[in-house]
TrEMBL record:
Listed SUPFAM superfamilies: Acid phosphatase/Vanadium-dependent haloperoxidase
Domain DUF6851: 86-216
UniProt organism field: Chlorogloeopsis fritschii PCC 6912
Superkingdom of the organism of origin: Bacteria
Domain Vanadium-dependent haloperoxidase NapH1-like second helical-bundle, residue spans: 339-510
MF-aspect GO terms: peroxidase activity
The protein, known as: Phosphatidic acid phosphatase type 2/haloperoxidase domain-containing protein
Length: 514
């Protein structure tokens, strides 16, 4: 997706009492993010998503957050939580200037009179709220957020807590949200165990680390072929990494947005295939067959949806699709506040539910299962005929397989949840968008082997559901998820999104319990 995400300085703000005067000035645009240069995105026939002087402030703050995510490379769970906190902070500040909406921390207690419910005050409140939470979430990326405050004409040093002003609303609502989220079990502050977002539950893998470059490693490291195994992969500099650590194994303890508990829908995902059952081998055989027959389009699907380190990851990817909807449907600030509030919190709850399943089942990844089943035999992968103990998924050698158990697929859960929210908000499943990899642009897994495709490859999604389903199956093409992990993850994502949608609508409509 060739997305040039920029923030344009089109106005400066002068805060006078309860209102904001916004004289227009012309200033050179400042590039704050650029992603997926190898792909050309077509948003519902509008072409690539390009910045505009009319982009609302929520979009600009979300773009700043996506840049911080790309720079800092957090786990998918942390991305989902961070974007939910950002868009909840924006929503809470905005709700004070809406006639009916209830905030998540103060309800309707901070509601300002109708005469103050102006776009200028909304912009000011959401900007201060967004700034405060983003600096808290991404302290090493503070310069990005400082620059945006200057661009928008605000003084980041104004810490007023006067809730009769828009600045005070933004500061007070964001601090209340942060106070709550600092104690939500994510361990953001490292007060439950040393290190931000570190595990405090004592998780230890059953199996010893697998060196993916040593074919003999599979013979001595698998103690239980049903359980997850950490990998040793390439560091991209000619050396190997330390063994993987399960990213955020404590996430099942994080307080969700709408779910009653992290395990609320766990029973619906069913059970995994035990090593002693025929299903264990059949699910591995399916992936071996897929890998051996990968088409150029399937390779593109795998690579486009990979969303690995250095990207905005799956939760951020669906926020970019949300921006497409915003452009397509000509949203104003109020529309996007409501949509991204529901979208980000559904994705957050998807992270909690998916990681609950991952921690509970601790299930084996395909690379371990296939190498263990077929060691000493000749099978096939995307490179051709290989020994079973050498089988590789179609992934970059710096990734090979993400650092957490297989069941269920996070990609599938996130994507199904994102699609469900966008479908419900727009009232239709219609997406009609596409992405193209141009002829001559090499594949990323092995840029020189095979050569770049000789023709353009286009992925088209007529519906949000089509896009979500493709994201899910991409993990099977890529050899890192079994069919059950994908399909049951999709079902879990839809269930979670439905619950998050209902909760979001209760708050937006002012029908939440006081």
């Amino acid at each position: 997706m060739k997305l040039s995400l920029r923030i344009f300085t089109i106005q400066t703000s002068i805060v006078l009492g309860l209102t904001t005067i916004t004289p227009f000035v012309t200033i050179q645009p400042k590039v704050i993010a650029q992603a997926r240069e190898e792909y050309e995105f077509n948003c519902a026939g509008l072409g690539d998503i390009q910045p505009s002087p009319t982009d609302n402030y929520l979009i600009q703050w979300n773009n700043a957050a996506l840049l911080a995510i790309r720079n800092s490379k957090p786990a998918p769970t942390v991305v989902a939580r961070s974007l939910a906190i950002l868009n909840t902070a924006i929503y809470d500040a905005w709700s004070a200037y809406d006639p009916v909406a209830d905030g998540t921390r103060f309800g309707d207690k901070l509601r300002r009179p109708g005469s103050e419910q102006t776009l200028a005050n909304k912009n000011t409140a959401v900007s201060y709220a967004a700034y405060r939470v983003l600096v808290d979430l991404f302290p090493t990326q503070k310069s990005i957020f400082d620059d945006l405050m200057v661009t928008l004409g605000y003084d980041a040093n104004n810490t007023s807590t006067n809730t009769k002003t828009a600045i005070g609303i933004g500061n007070v609502t964001s601090q209340a949200l942060l106070k709550f989220r600092h104690q939500d079990g994510a361990n953001q502050l490292g007060n439950l165990a040393p290190g931000a977002y570190s595990d405090y539950t004592g998780y230890k893998p059953t199996n010893l680390p697998l060196d993916v470059f040593d074919p003999n490693s599979i013979y001595s490291t698998v103690l239980d072929p049903n359980r997850w195994q950490p990998l040793i992969v390439s560091d991209g500099q000619g050396s190997k990494t330390s063994p993987q650590k399960f990213a955020t194994p404590h996430w099942y303890l994080v307080i969700p947005f709408a779910l009653k508990t992290a395990s609320e829908f766990r029973s619906s995902v069913g059970k995994t295939h035990d090593f002693e059952t025929p299903g264990y081998k059949s699910q591995a055989d399916e992936l071996i067959g897929l890998a051996a027959r990968l088409t150029p389009q399937q390779k593109m699907i795998t690579e486009y949806w990979a969303d690995g380190p250095g990207s905005e990851l799956p939760p951020g990817h669906w926020h970019l699709f949300g921006q497409c909807v915003s452009k397509r449907d000509r949203h104003i600030l109020d529309d996007d506040v409501k949509m991204f509030f529901a979208l980000s919190n559904a994705l957050f709850d998807a992270s909690v539910a998916a990681w609950d399943a991952k921690r509970n089942y601790d299930y084996v990844r395909p690379i371990t299962a296939i190498r263990y089943l077929y060691k000493g035999q000749v099978i096939a992968d995307w490179r051709g005929s290989v020994r079973g103990e050498e089988w590789l998924p179609y992934q970059k050698d710096t990734v090979v397989t993400p650092p957490f158990p297989e069941f269920v697929s996070g990609h599938s859960t996130f994507s199904a949840a994102g699609a469900e929210i966008l479908k419900r908000f727009t009232g239709t499943d219609t997406f009609n968008s596409s992405v193209t990899q141009k002829a001559g642009v090499p594949f990323r897994v092995q840029p020189q082997n095979p050569p770049a495709p000789t023709q353009d490859i286009t992925l088209f999604w007529s519906t949000f559901t089509d896009a979500a389903d493709e994201a899910g199956i991409s993990r099977r093409y890529g050899g890192i998820h079994f069919a059950d992990g994908d399909l049951r993850g999709r079902n879990l994502g839809r269930q979670v999104a439905t619950r998050a949608w209902i909760r979001a609508q209760e708050l937006i409509s002012g029908r939440a319990e006081k």
